[in-house]
Structures are given as C-alpha cells and as structure tokens.
Write a structure and sequence with these properties.
The complex is a heterodimer of chains A (114) and B (113). Chain A has 114 residues and is an all-beta fold. Chain A has strands at residues 5-7, 10-13, 19-24, 31-37, 44-50, 53-57, 64-68, 74-78, 87-94, 104-105, 109-113. Chain B is an all-beta fold and 113 residues long. Chain B is 0% helix and 56% strand. Classes of the chains: A mainly beta (114), B mainly beta (113).
Chain lengths: 114, 113
C-alpha cells in the first residue's frame, strides 16, 4: 500500500508568485490536513478537509487556500508569496476527522521563496 | 486555542541510557496525544500514541505516560541507540476535540555511541 504522496518535492519561487502543492492520501482515507513546518519548529496546522469540505482552518492569512477533490486528493494554494512562506509543507491523511484519529504524514514539499 | 509546550529542546545521552521528553498542553478537551520522530530531511513518523482513557502505553523500548489532571504527557525511551537520534515532536488533538494536531517545538535527541 502506498503511503501519503506529495508533489513536487522541492520548489523555488520568487516573492509575489503563486504556488500549488498537491497531496494524495492513503487509499481509503477521506481526510487531508495541511501543515507548515518552518525550520527548527514543529508543524503548524493550516487546513483540514474531509469529504471535500473545509473542516478546520489554522491561523493563516487568506493568501492560503485549499481544496479537496472527489478522489480525496488535495491541493494547497498560496498566493502573493512572501519570504516567510519558505518552509516544508506537510500533508497528513486520516480515515476521518473524529478526534483520536491517527494522522500519517507525507514526505512534504520544501518551498523556498527568494 | 491549544498550546503545547515541550522540554527539553535538546537532549544528549550516551548509548544505553534512558531519555525522557516532557510535554504540557492547555486544552482540557484534548484526548489524543501522538509522538512523532523526524529524521533530517524526512517526514514525521508516528512512533507511539496514547488516548485519554489510558494512563500509560508501551511498545518495546518506547513508553508514553499521560496525566490528564495535570495536562502533561511524557515520552520515555530506554536503552537508547544511535539510530534513535532525531527530532521528536509531541502533539495534542485540538482545538476542541477535533483531529487536527497542535505540535510542540520539538526535542533534538542525540545518542552518542
């Protein structure tokens, strides 16, 4: 069974540009969550999607948006990139959204904004 | 919202020693507490988790304890090995019982041969 997959693995953008990151959950998992991990810190929650609907949002500006597709894959979009958006973006999948659900992380997309 | 504090930020031990990492959380509604290990450049990997109806859980050399009254939980690694060297993150489910996780800032564990 494949684990959580993410693409691309690395990305370099310049300030003001837009980026789209992609995530495919573990087969059978219906929930996808996005986290931002800045170097030296723990992952910080951005969004959670379940059954194509946003079920939770962290403290991030409106430049960040996401969506989930009928096959449960997900995209994270970031507009008007800032230098501070440079980070590892992690996707995690879980069966559902009940509390106590185990979340499994993908390898991440490392974004560098110049 | 939930806040998770993790200590120490770095921990150096000799091979064979035990290592203990401690976390506190703020939201009393949190009821799921996973621990992740992250090696350099790799994804966080779940190593053990504990749910609020349990006070302690063991898996070989790894154990986690939970004190809901005091709102703290700890990771114990016995007989440490060099391959245990990594950054360890604690997390708590939240806010308000949902499955999103709030992470601590991590503990860099270095096990010297």
């Amino acid at each position: 069974d494949a684990g959580v997959t993410q693409s691309p693995t690395h990305l370099i953008k310049t300030r003001g540009q837009h980026v789209t990151l992609r995530c495919s959950p573990i087969s059978g998992h219906k929930s996808v969550s996005w986290y931002q991990q800045v170097l030296g810190q723990g992952p910080q929650f951005i969004f959670q999607y379940y059954e194509k609907e946003e079920r939770g949002r962290g403290n991030f500006p409106d430049r960040f948006s996401a969506r989930q597709f009928p096959n449960y894959s997900s995209e994270l979009n970031v507009n008007a990139l800032l230098l501070g958006d440079s980070a590892l973006y992690l996707c995690a999948s879980s069966l559902g959204i009940a509390d106590q659900e185990t979340q499994y992380f993908g390898p991440g997309t490392r974004l560098l904004v110049l | 919202g939930e806040n998770v504090e993790q200590h120490p930020s770095t921990l150096s031990v000799q091979e064979g020693d035990s290592a203990v990492i401690k976390c506190t959380y703020s939201d009393s509604a949190s009821n799921y507490f996973p621990w992740y290990k992250q090696e350099l450049g790799k994804r966080p990997q779940l190593i053990i988790d504990i749910r609020s109806n349990v006070g302690e859980k063991k898996d070989q050399r790894i154990a986690v304890t939970l004190n809901k009254t005091a709102k703290h939980f700890s990771l114990h690694i016995t007989e440490t090995q060099p391959e245990d060297s990594a950054v360890y993150f604690c997390a708590a489910s939240g806010p308000s019982g949902y499955s999103t996780l709030t992470f601590g800032k991590g503990t860099m564990l270095l096990v010297s041969p």
